[in-house]
What we know:
alpha+beta, 41% strand
Amino acid sequence: MLRAIGLAALLVLALAAATRLALVTAPNAATLSTDDWLGVWRDGLNVVWISLNPNELVTVVGAAYSDDPVGKVSHANMQFETSPSGNRISLLAESDPCSADLLNFGGQLIVSDNGQCGGARFDGVYTHQ
């Protein structure tokens, strides 16, 4: 069982590293409109909702879940208002330690967080629902 826990931890670290690498190395896509961001994005149980505010900013709300090898469920939350820059959104809050980077590329949303959003990670590739 201890070996399974170690393998699961390595898999999580590898996924997080691959997600961060995709965010850094992805080429810039064609300019996106705000509408290209809006809606519900899913990666398994994890979900990110992006909606338009009256002030032309977007609100990003997310919920992430993970199971560890012994069956404990962890969760994380994030909520930000921001403005997309091309095909990227960087989420930083002055009073919240949680931050994340989102890349809208080819109809998929690649998300990487800083590990400070709760007990689970948002890292992954999300599809538009």
